[in-house]
Amino acid sequence: PVPTISWRRADGKQIPRKARRHRSSGLLEIPNFQQEDAGLYECVAENVRGKNVARGQLTFYAQPSWTQRISDVHAAIEERVSWECRASGRPKPSYRWLKDGEPLLPQGRVQLEQGSLTIPNVSLSDAGMYQCVAENRHGVIFASAELSVIAIGPDFSKTLLKKLTLVKVGGEVIIECKPKASPRPTYSWKKGKDILRENER
């Protein structure tokens, strides 16, 4: 006689509630298939003469999709620059970096690890367009950002050279001079019009 058909999962989990069974045609339909729906499914056909089982593995995959992108950065010379990009996907995406369209390799000052890029001391030669590439066997995606490296002349607007009153003869006085500048400036000190030179005091 015509068999009755039923469905089950071989791993013991429940078939998703959203699944639709078409008993007459032996069809199982799973809309909006997600990772948790993946697994080994069994179709069981049974009549008074016996039973037979057919098995099929459903595998979930997804092309990469950005969960964290990179954005443009303006940095002064010798500043630290860090970028991090993250993508979801199945299987898990791998990452690589491009600079001005050319592959970027870990070298010297440039540190690459998974989806992160770090330049501890940026220089003018580091300026350019960078791309983070995430890929798996189902797709490739790109995220782009520009690194602009700027030079700044010494700026004392946010630095105060305080008037110091020596309370105790022989005490130590420290005067800090920290202007905003890029690249790092050289320093010289004057007392009045005379240039101060280092000595035993």
Q: Would you kindly provide a brief summary of this structure?
A:
0% of the residues lie in helices and 48% in strands. It has 201 residues and is mainly beta. β2 (20-22) and β3 form a beta hairpin.
Write up what this structure looks like.
There is one protein chain. With 201 residues, the protein is mainly beta. The chain has 2 domains: 55 residues, Immunoglobulin-like, CATH 2.60.40; 89 residues, Immunoglobulins (Immunoglobulin-like), CATH 2.60.40.10. The strands form 7 sheets. Strands 7-15-14-10-11 form a 5-stranded mixed sheet, with no helix packed on it. The chain has a 3-stranded antiparallel sheet with strand order 1-4-5, with no helix packed on it. A 3-stranded antiparallel sheet has the order 8-13-12, with no helix packed on it.
- Percentage beta strand: over 45%
User: What oligomeric state is this?
Assistant: single chain
Terminal CA distance reads 110 Å
Give the CATH architecture of the largest domain. Sandwich
Share of helix among residues? under 10%
Main β-sheet description: 5 strands, mixed
Low-confidence stretches: none
- Biggest sheet: strands side by side, in what order? 7-15-14-10-11
Q: Please tell me how large the radius of gyration is.
A: 33 Å
Q: What top-tier CATH class of the largest domain fits best? A: Mainly Beta
Characterize the overall form. rod-shaped
